[in-house]
Structures are given as structure tokens and as C-alpha cells.
Write the C-alpha cells for this entry.
Amino acid sequence: MVLSTLLKFIYPPPASWFVTAMTVINGASLVNAGLMEIKGKSMQYSKFFNTNNKNVEDSMIKLSGRNGMLLAYSPAFVASVTSLALMQDEGLRFTLVASALAVHFFKRLFETLFIHKYSGSMAIDTAIAISTSYFLSSVSLIYSQHLCGEFAEPIIDLKYAGIAVFLVGIVGNFYHHYLLSKLRKEGEKEYKIPQGGLFGSVICPHYLFEILGFIGISCISQTVYALSFTAGTIGYLTGRSYATRRWYLSKFEDFPKDVKALIPYIF
């Protein structure tokens, strides 16, 4: 009964060991990363990351924050654009999924070059790990969509609703990243409490809108892989938003206690 109801909304999982493996690995690894954030074990590019081992710190090969992010996002963007160029007869849904991914990573590259301000560096192995993760996730989503093209469309079509949710997510995420970039003047490195937009209600509205963006992609895709990746992303960003709020509380005595982590008035 549950399965038959679920199949009204999603395609059956394709018979692919690669897609099956990536569905499990991506979802589990993202949720685990969220739990690590809650436990205070953040990635090395994070402002929360701190190592007390100077020998380890000195031995890291580092990139500037901007170059690290460019390396992280570029392969996934190239994969998305390449799929659009080489797979033009895959149907509307496939084109929408690949286009949404291309827009998502183009926005990230644009922000990296013109919006974000950087106060630190990134270890090259961290940049490569993030880049590989984004690339494999994008390729898996595109490949899963390609394989599902042989199935009948889900009875309940969510792709147009997904487009709307995706656009809300991408615009809201960009807007709040822009507000964050305006917190510090050129040359400043100290952190400040964000203001404007939804920052008066939650400390991570950019994560909230990023989640909406991936929910939109899942609705456009309607594949098991997309749902798994989005669920994992929600788990990771929930943990990261919790860690972000905890960090602000520890750094700023005047941080408003009624400002939540991710969801206004709730969490």
C-alpha cells in the first residue's frame, strides 16, 4: 500500500548498481556530516574548524578560499552543462533537471567570483573532496534521470511545482548570501551578526533556501536518487545550522536568543 502510493510520486528505482550505491552512500554520508557538525567536528574550510596541532596545520597544502570554492564547484557545473549539450533528446524532465543543476552551480561560481568575501584558506585535499562529492552527486542525478526515461511518468506530476520551489530557493539563497557579503567592508575579517531578510528570524536563511532549491530539484526529478540526496542535504544543513547558531551564541553576548537556527519559530 505504501509502495503503491509512493510510486504515484516517483519513478521506480532503475536497475543500476551505480545509482543504488550512490543513493545509499550520498544520503548516509551527508547525514553523517550533519551529525559531525552538531558534535563540533566541522570541515576544514569552515569557520568553526580549529586544529590545535600546528604541525598538521603547517603541512596542509592550501588554496585561497576563492580558488578552493572554484575548484569545488566547477566540475559539477561542467558536468551539468555537458549533459545538456550531449543529451538533447532525453525529454523535458531531463532537460529541466540538468538545467536546474547548471543554474545552481553557476550561481555558486558567480557568488564565489563576485559576491563572497573570504577571510581564510582551504586545504587542497578538502577542496578536492568537496569537488568530487558535488561532481559525483550531479552525475548520479543526471544518470538516474536518464535511466528513468524508460519508465512511464509518475501519475502525480510535480515538475512544474518543482520549478517554482527551485526558483524561490535559488533567489532566496542568493539574496541572503548577498546580505552576508555586505556585513564586512573591504579588508575586514571579523565576523558580525547578520541582519536583514530572514536573518531576524533564523541565523541560516541561506541554508533554508538552499534546502528549498534541492526540494525543487527533487520534485522536478521525481527519482529515488534525488529524494535520497535531498534528504541527506537536509540532514547536513540542519546539523550545520545548529552548529552555526551555537557558534554565534558563543562569540556574541548580544546574539538574540529568539533567533532560531534554520526554521523560523521552530528550530
The first strand starts at residue 62 and ends at 64. Residues 11 and 223 are 5 Å apart (CA to CA). The chain has one domain: 2-251. The beta strands are 62-64, 121-123.
